Automatic annotation (TrEMBL):
Keyword Phosphoprotein tagged: yes
Keyword Thylakoid appears in the UniProt entry: no
Organism whose genome encodes this protein: Paramormyrops kingsleyae
Organism lineage string: Eukaryota, Metazoa, Chordata, Craniata, Vertebrata
The protein's name in its UniProt record: Protein phosphatase 1 regulatory inhibitor subunit 14D
One cellular-component annotation, GO: cytoplasm
GO molecular function: protein serine/threonine phosphatase inhibitor activity
Pfam families in the cross-refs: PP1_inhibitor
Amino acid sequence: MASEASSQPRVMFHTSEKEKEDEECPRCTLVKLTVKYNRKDLQRRLDIEEWIEGQLHLLYDCEEDDIPQLEIDIDELLELPDTEQRSRLQDLLQECAKPKEEFINGLLYRMKGLRKMSVTLKK
Protein backbone atom coordinates (compact mmCIF):
# COMPACT_ATOMS: atom_id res chain seq x y z
CA MET A 1 0.00 0.00 0.00
CA ALA A 2 2.80 2.38 0.79
CA SER A 3 4.17 1.97 -2.73
CA GLU A 4 0.73 2.79 -4.18
CA ALA A 5 0.57 6.11 -2.31
CA SER A 6 4.05 7.16 -3.43
CA SER A 7 3.35 6.34 -7.10
CA GLN A 8 0.26 8.60 -7.19
CA PRO A 9 0.82 12.01 -8.82
CA ARG A 10 1.13 14.97 -6.46
CA VAL A 11 -0.37 18.38 -6.98
CA MET A 12 1.82 21.33 -6.04
CA PHE A 13 0.92 24.98 -6.28
CA HIS A 14 3.53 27.57 -7.16
CA THR A 15 3.09 31.18 -6.15
CA SER A 16 4.81 34.22 -7.49
CA GLU A 17 7.09 36.35 -5.32
CA LYS A 18 4.43 39.09 -5.08
CA GLU A 19 1.84 36.62 -3.79
CA LYS A 20 4.32 35.37 -1.19
CA GLU A 21 4.93 38.94 0.01
CA ASP A 22 1.19 39.62 0.22
CA GLU A 23 0.68 36.43 2.23
CA GLU A 24 3.46 37.26 4.66
CA CYS A 25 2.45 40.87 5.24
CA PRO A 26 -0.76 40.15 7.23
CA ARG A 27 1.16 37.68 9.35
CA CYS A 28 3.76 40.34 10.16
CA THR A 29 1.01 42.78 11.07
CA LEU A 30 -0.68 40.24 13.32
CA VAL A 31 2.55 39.52 15.12
CA LYS A 32 3.17 43.22 15.75
CA LEU A 33 -0.33 43.77 17.11
CA THR A 34 -0.31 40.81 19.47
CA VAL A 35 -0.26 41.93 23.09
CA LYS A 36 0.32 39.69 26.06
CA TYR A 37 -1.70 40.37 29.17
CA ASN A 38 -1.66 38.49 32.41
CA ARG A 39 -4.97 36.62 32.74
CA LYS A 40 -5.14 37.42 36.45
CA ASP A 41 -4.74 41.15 35.75
CA LEU A 42 -7.43 41.01 33.07
CA GLN A 43 -9.85 39.26 35.44
CA ARG A 44 -9.12 41.76 38.19
CA ARG A 45 -9.74 44.66 35.80
CA LEU A 46 -13.00 43.08 34.64
CA ASP A 47 -14.09 42.63 38.26
CA ILE A 48 -13.37 46.30 38.97
CA GLU A 49 -15.31 47.41 35.90
CA GLU A 50 -18.31 45.30 36.94
CA TRP A 51 -18.07 46.71 40.47
CA ILE A 52 -18.02 50.26 39.05
CA GLU A 53 -21.13 49.54 37.00
CA GLY A 54 -23.00 48.15 40.01
CA GLN A 55 -21.98 51.07 42.20
CA LEU A 56 -23.07 53.61 39.60
CA HIS A 57 -26.53 52.01 39.62
CA LEU A 58 -26.64 52.52 43.38
CA LEU A 59 -25.25 56.06 43.27
CA TYR A 60 -27.65 57.29 40.63
CA ASP A 61 -30.49 55.01 41.82
CA CYS A 62 -31.70 54.37 38.30
CA GLU A 63 -31.60 51.93 35.41
CA GLU A 64 -28.50 51.53 33.24
CA ASP A 65 -29.98 53.61 30.41
CA ASP A 66 -30.65 56.53 32.77
CA ILE A 67 -27.11 56.79 34.16
CA PRO A 68 -25.33 59.88 32.77
CA GLN A 69 -22.55 59.15 30.30
CA LEU A 70 -19.54 58.67 32.54
CA GLU A 71 -16.23 57.44 31.29
CA ILE A 72 -14.15 56.24 34.19
CA ASP A 73 -10.90 55.29 32.50
CA ILE A 74 -8.90 53.08 34.84
CA ASP A 75 -5.68 53.51 32.83
CA GLU A 76 -6.06 57.29 32.90
CA LEU A 77 -6.53 57.18 36.67
CA LEU A 78 -3.48 54.95 37.11
CA GLU A 79 -1.33 57.58 35.40
CA LEU A 80 -2.33 60.20 37.97
CA PRO A 81 -0.94 60.64 41.49
CA ASP A 82 -3.28 59.52 44.31
CA THR A 83 -4.59 63.00 45.13
CA GLU A 84 -5.35 63.74 41.49
CA GLN A 85 -7.13 60.39 41.11
CA ARG A 86 -9.52 61.39 43.87
CA SER A 87 -10.17 64.86 42.43
CA ARG A 88 -10.67 63.41 38.92
CA LEU A 89 -13.30 61.01 40.25
CA GLN A 90 -15.01 63.83 42.15
CA ASP A 91 -15.14 65.87 38.93
CA LEU A 92 -16.66 62.96 37.02
CA LEU A 93 -19.29 62.37 39.69
CA GLN A 94 -20.22 66.01 40.38
CA GLU A 95 -23.77 65.50 39.02
CA CYS A 96 -24.43 62.74 41.54
CA ALA A 97 -26.58 63.95 44.45
CA LYS A 98 -25.73 61.05 46.77
CA PRO A 99 -22.52 60.93 48.84
CA LYS A 100 -19.79 59.56 46.63
CA GLU A 101 -16.84 59.28 49.03
CA GLU A 102 -17.52 55.61 49.75
CA PHE A 103 -17.51 54.85 46.00
CA ILE A 104 -14.31 56.82 45.43
CA ASN A 105 -12.54 55.19 48.39
CA GLY A 106 -13.69 51.75 47.26
CA LEU A 107 -12.50 52.27 43.70
CA LEU A 108 -9.12 53.65 44.74
CA TYR A 109 -8.68 50.71 47.13
CA ARG A 110 -9.52 48.19 44.38
CA MET A 111 -7.11 49.88 41.98
CA LYS A 112 -4.14 49.49 44.35
CA GLY A 113 -1.53 47.28 42.75
CA LEU A 114 -3.30 47.30 39.39
CA ARG A 115 -0.98 47.99 36.49
CA LYS A 116 -1.72 50.17 33.50
CA MET A 117 -2.37 48.11 30.40
CA SER A 118 0.28 49.14 27.93
CA VAL A 119 0.58 48.01 24.36
CA THR A 120 3.91 46.30 23.86
CA LEU A 121 4.94 45.29 20.39
CA LYS A 122 6.71 42.01 19.73
CA LYS A 123 9.81 42.29 17.62
